[in-house]
Amino acid sequence: MPADPATALYTADQVRRIDRATIDRCGVPGLELMRRAAAAAFDTLRRRWPEARRLCLLAGSGNNGGDALLVGERALHAGLAVTALLPERPGGDDARAALAAYADAGGGLGNADDGLPLADVYVDGLFGTGLARAPQGVAAALIAQLNACGRPVLALDVPSGLAADTGMPLGVAVRAAATICFVGWKRGLFTAAAADCCGERELALLDVPAMARSGIVPDARLLDAGIGCVLPTRDADVNKGRFGHLLAVGGDHGMGGAIRLAGEAALRCGAGLVGIATREDHVGAVLAARPELMVRGVDGAPALQVLLERADVVALGPGLGQGAWSHALWDRALAAGRPCVVDADALNLLARQAQPVPAGSVLTPHPGEAARLLGSDVAAVQADRYAAARALAQRHRAVVVLKGAGSLIADPDGHVAVCPWGNPGMATAGMGDVLTGVIGALLAQGLSAWDAARLGVALHARAGDLAAGGSPRGLLASDLFAPLRTLANRFTA
Q1: Which of 15, 127, 410, 436 is the most exposed place for a label (fewest CB within 10 A)?
Q2: Is 77 annotated as a binding residue?
């Protein structure tokens, strides 16, 4: 079954192969592809900024620069004033043809060394997917000026300076108002720093024949509105035992809020029974706040064992700590063999003491926890989040959710799904605890680890967007509870 272009994510090399096949096997000239890209980009520009009268093109020496110059040609024919800055002259036949077409239309060239001229919209065609090092010299200076000018920037294919495969800046990178991506989504546009660089994203397929994509399996896929996995419809004649028993383990001294958030999130997403194993001094507060939770104070592994025997799934880690009490509970919970959602300090303990996790488990590290599990550092994880997520999933034979902007869900076979939702307001205490409860509830209701992780991440991120509205600053983790319940009821068979 062909990949859905709306959700297929490719590496830069894969898109280059599609381009090459379009030219060599399908007979579409490279200059024609460039013209199609320019037409799509100019349509986007006019739709987004209909009042724009002055354009400035920043055109590099490659095909990305050619795309920008042909945008300029179209703009000139439409009566707009256009100036192009070329830090380097075009280096390929198609790019040189684009420059000639721009000049024939009456386009003028500015001096890139003089900096940016005044414009209503800037078109970024400095660097495309082939960039492998930090921008230097005049190009780097122009990118810095773009970011400081306060005017909108339309990036062509990928913001200049952003690595198309990883979403990380190679040095200074353009922060565009919008990015139009050509042929297929580049996987780096949806994770790491990409959200700050891309602005709003559009995809232009350029009428590439299906044959050109034949045999090229997308490297990853975006989660879409349907997700592709659902919870079973509930019959009227049922009881709570049909919807799973989740046990949330954590809440060392002073961290009772974390385990309470995980427990309530699980209830809001439909778990039939949710127990909490925590420090005795948290029992009263949790019961007072949410009496539907079954809270037990446990002083060590033997007390936990009784609760584990009744549970179907374990949510392990919110507020757990790393002391002797924490380690004892962690060790016993993993040994029980129940599918686990392993989060927070349970991950830190796993990094200190490698131990198999039960089959059907989900690990939910943020970049710092991922770095500890991999024996590396945060910079290395963020430098290639796809590689880090896949490495963790293979190492622990579990589904892994690598949290952050553009959360990644990876399985041990190398499949990766990417979450396009979420907002900066979710970077606050307790959000990870809520996600743990959400995924745990979905596991308890019978979803596989892969489906529970994908649907759980989607529910969590979309609930965060609904709760934030247009005001992400000050968002609380508990603000997600009401939209979580609403959204969870939409994903039923």
Answers
A1: 15
A2: no
pLDDT tens per residue across span 67-119: 999 999 999 999 999 999 999 999 999 999 999 999 999 999 999 999 999 99
Quote the percentage of the chain above a pLDDT of 70. Answer: 100
pLDDT tens-digit readout, 405-464: 999 999 999 999 999 999 999 999 999 999 999 999 999 999 999 999 999 999 999 999
| pLDDT band per the 50, 70, 90 thresholds, residue 226 | confident
pLDDT band at 225 (very low <50, low <70, confident <90, very high): confident
Domains and CATH numbers, the chain: 8-219 (3.40.50.10260), 240-488 (3.40.1190.20)
Does 124 carry a binding-site annotation? yes
Q: Has 407 been labeled as part of a binding site?
A: yes
Is position 448 annotated in a ligand binding site?
no
Q: Would the annotation count 160 as a binding residue? A: yes
- CA-nearest of 365, 316, 321 to 336 is 316
Instruction: Report yes or no: 421 and 463 within 8 Å, Cβ to Cβ.
Output: no
Q: Is 404 a known ligand-binding residue?
A: yes
User: Residue 231: which pLDDT band, with cuts at 50, 70 and 90?
Assistant: confident
Tell whether residue 22 is among the known ligand binding residues: no
> Is position 456 annotated in a ligand binding site?
no
175 is in an annotated binding site: no
The reply to whether 133 sits in an annotated binding site is yes
Q: What is the 3-state secondary structure (H, E, C) of 181-215?
A: EECCEEHHHHCCCHHHHHCEEEEECCCCCHHHHCC
Tell me if 129 is assigned to a ligand binding site.
Answer: yes
- The answer to whether the annotation marks 128 as part of a ligand binding site is yes
- CA-to-CA distance for 348 and 64, rounded, in angstroms? 44
| 11 annotated ligand-binding residue | no
Alpha-carbon radius of gyration of the chain: 26
